[in-house]
Amino acid sequence: MGSPTPVRAEEAVYLSLLRQPAHMFLTTPPKRLAFLGRPGDLFVVLLVNMLLTFITLGLYYPWAKARRLSWYYEHTELDGHPFHFHGTGNEMFKGFIKAIGLLLLIYGTYIVGVLMEEVKLVVIGVLVMFVGLLLFIPLIIHGSLRYRSSRSSWRGIHFGYRGQLKELYRICLRDGLLTLITVGIYGSWLTIHLRNYTVGHLRYGSTSFRYKGDGAAFFLLNLKGYLLTVFTLGIYGFWWQRDLFNYYVNNLSWEHPDGKRIQFRSTATGGGFFSLMLVNVLIVVFTLGIGFAWAEVRTMRFVLEHIALDGDADLNAVVQTEQEHKNAMADDLGDLLDIGVFI
Questions:
Q1: Which residues of the chain register pLDDT less than 50?
Q2: What span, in angstroms and rounded, lies between the C-alpha atoms of 47 and 131?
Q3: Can you say how many angstroms the Cα of residue 279 is from the centroid of all Cα atoms in its chain?
Q4: Residue burial 1-11, b: 16+ Cβ < 10 Å; e: rest
Q5: What is the pLDDT, as a whole number, of residue 313?
Q6: How does strand 76-78 pair with strand 33-35?
Q7: Burial (0-12, 13-18, 19+ Cβ within 10 Å), 99
Q8: Across the strands, what pairs with 204?
Q9: 280 CB contacts (<8 Å, ≥6 apart)?
Q10: What is the DSSP pairing of strand 261-266 with strand 252-255?
Q11: At what angle do helices 237-250 and 270-286 cross, to 10 degrees?
């Protein structure tokens, strides 16, 4: 028999690759956030919600809110999997009625005093409103986070919030008093302390989140942004918005039980914010408000496209651990008082 045919170099490389373990070729797909909603669909959702809310004299509002949230969630994806909102109009309607009752209780004394033209009742009513609203703010934040997070899921696993109401009261009362004494200066510390605590007690199944903001750094960022915005006649405002966005995103991480983490990172630029906001204003103004849905979708896409997720944590290892909370009163009360919660 003759000698074996020599193997060419490229064939040798191919054969050596075949001998490698399979896991050598498996790469972790990028953990990308994306918003896939279409503005025309959002326009229909908002239009129907507005008409039904108007026809029902506001009673349809809880169902409108549930429908709107579901649309946003289902068109927001992470790694190709959409989020889901499980809250219902019925849940929110019960919370809506309770929230209205509490607001009537808070404003009742003031309204009666005005109608009866009693100065003492008006003064008492103002004090009741002030104290009542201060006491309700931590309750709204706590209740909204519990409800909204537990009714949110991704890949069948629910989010959750494990913060304590008494700790929120402690932060709000302490930092609120210091903010009042310092004529608003300490507000940056109040904002960051609340964000550190609330985000730090958010869960996704067996994983948790962490926020590492610093009040002094946040104050200096806002001071710089304010002064430069005034000095440049508003032009720096877009870069100020970029700095705020970067600060909120870059200090957020997703912690996993095995010690691994996913770090959030912003890729937004001042020029990007300038283009986004300028075009959005033109769309809304020249369409007399009809183009709001188009501006909203542009904003959602911009925000999610500029949030990168870095890390090698295994999202497939997450297991369900959180309980459901169906009391939507605090969430509805927050809407009525225009107190937003960042989820």
A1: 1-7, 9-27, 330, 334, 336-337, 343
A2: 37
A3: 23
A4: eeeeeeeeeee
A5: 87
A6: antiparallel
A7: buried
A8: 159, 207
A9: 295, 298, 299
A10: antiparallel
A11: 120
pTM of the model: 0.81
Using left for φ > 0, alpha for ψ between -120 and 50, and beta otherwise, residue 183 falls in: left
Give me the amino acid identity at 211: Y
Phi, psi of 78 (to 5 degrees): -125, 120
Taking alpha carbons only, the member of 342, 273, 340, 343 closest to residue 302 is: 273
Per-residue pLDDT tens for 41-75?
999 999 999 999 999 998 999 999 999 999 999 99
Name the residue type at position 264: F
| Structure-token match 């309607």, residue found | 93
Rounded Cα gap, residues 295 and 80, in angstroms: 24
Residues 6+ away with beta carbon under 8 Å from 333: 95, 98, 99, 102, 103, 136, 139, 140, 143, 339
Q: 113: Cβ–Cβ under 8 A, 6 or more apart, which residues?
A: 119, 120, 121, 122, 123, 124, 125
The C-alpha R_g of the chain, in whole angstroms, comes to 25
CB atoms within 10 A of CB 146: 22
> What SS3 string covers the chain?
CCCCCCCCHHHHHHHHHHCCCHHHHCCCCCCCEEECCCHHHHHHHHHHHHHHHHHCCCCCHHHHHHHHHHHHHHCEEECCEEEEECCCHHHHHHHHHHHHHHHHHHHHHHHHHHHHCCHHHHHHHHHHHHHHHHHHHHHHHHHHHHHHHHCEEECCEEEEECCCHHHHHHHHHHHHHHHHHCCCCCHHHHHHHHHHHHHHCEEECCEEEEECCCHHHHHHHHHHHHHHHHHCCCCCHHHHHHHHHHHHHHCEEEECCCCCEEEEEECCCHHHHHHHHHHHHHHHHHCCCCCHHHHHHHHHHHHHHCEEEECCCCHHHCCCCCCCCCCCHHHHHHHHCCCCCCC
Q: Cβ(158)–Cβ(324) under 8 Å? A: yes
What CA–CA distance (Å, rounded) separates 305 from 301?
A: 6
